[in-house]
Amino acid sequence: MSSPASRPTPLPPPAEVRLGDALSVAFADEPAGVYGFARVELDERGGQARSLVAVFAGGRPLALTAGQAPLAPGGLGRDPIDGGGLLLHDDDGVWSARFAGAPDGIGAFSLDCEPVLPWLGVPASDEERQLQRVSVHGELQLPSGPLAVEGTGQLTLSRQAAPGAAAVTRDLAVWVADRLTLDLSATRERAGDGIDTERLQAVVIGHDPPSVQAIEEPRLSTTYDAEGRPLRVGMELWLTAESAHARRVAGDVLCAATLTSAAGRWDCAFLRWRTDSGPGIGPYAIWRSAPGRS
């Protein structure tokens, strides 16, 4: 028994990012060997917009920063979201991302995200999750000078049903050219360390025409390096419990970095993926909150 992919009703662009939301943009220009992930979380309790940014070039971190900025009084509306060194802005449906870079300006980028798909709602653990595949165009500052970026990427909006409940969150995406997107999210609460405490949600998104197929039984296996960062990843995506075969996906890390703070540990990596639909690229981000901070 199999469940067919559904033709989704496109969602309008998020008219207003709200307190408690997290908005991220990830991008890859594989021919240039540059990758980036930027996230802003709007902390309702602390009245802060907190950002995490990782930029890679040549397999190494080019910039790795955490920032924060006070939230504007009176709500966000459609104003640019300032995460402290990272600015995200919706300009009539085309999001832009501007990052100041490291203190010396290295890793700074200015990118426009042109929609490839409409905003789509996907199942997720304990949150409302929307995503949009985009093409990315702009400029990245390397030590040798500016580099034109032409690549692929994804915007993701997460709206938690129970903010702060998860001790570990994992989010990954696989971008297979302009044909397919795989998206997986997982949460693990503080009680218990076993894999049985983790809730996984995964979807397969077709591009032409747009379609969303929920995976009933996703399985995720990660091999870590000596520093605790992802090294190799495998997925088995069982469409239903009765499926005779699973879609199998495997990935090897191209670059990875870790940022630690009093709030927790953030690992961000980009992987080259192997799928039955062809090779892919995409990010894998893991957040582990510090004890007492979940």
Summarize the structure.
This protein has 294 residues and is mostly beta strands. Helices cover 0% and strands 64% of the residues.
How widely separated are the two ends? 39 Å
Count of runs of 4 or more consecutive helical residues? 0
The helicity comes to: under 10%
Output the helix-strand order: EEEEEEEEEEEEEEEEEEEE
Largest sheet: 11 strands, antiparallel
Task: Tell me the overall shape.
Answer: globular
Q: What's the Cα radius of gyration?
A: 18 Å
The percentage of residues in β strands lies in over 45%
Unreliable residue runs: none
Task: Please count the beta strands (DSSP E, at least 2 residues each).
Answer: 20
Pairing-aware structural class of the strands and helices?
mainly beta
The mean pLDDT is 86
Number of domains: 1
Q: How would you describe this structure to a colleague?
A:
The chain has 294 residues and is mainly β. The chain is 0% helix and 64% strand. The chain is built from no helices and 20 strands. It has strands at 21-29, 34-43, 48-57, 60-70, 81-82, 86-91, 94-99, 109-115, 120-122, 127-142, 145-160, 166-176, 180-189, 198-207, 210-215, 217-224, 230-238, 247-261, 264-275, 278-289. The chain is globular, with a radius of gyration of 18 Å. The relative contact order is 0.16. The model has no long low-confidence stretch (mean pLDDT 86).
